[in-house]
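HUMAN: Please help interpret these tokens:
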Amino acid sequence: MFDINFTDLLTALALVFVFEGLMPFINPESMRKVYLLAAQMDNQTLRFLGVTSMLIGLILLYVVK
């Protein structure tokens, strides 16, 4: 059912780090503003954004696979 090996998992994790590091590298001032905005959000909003991000990722993974 799940045909994933350890190399695929590490590759995916490496890509997460690459994409997470792009914006702070390209535009650190903008990232500071985003972090400050996120710090002002309530927990419910952050949880909603988190679950929405996970669902989009799962849908994308399903489409790709």
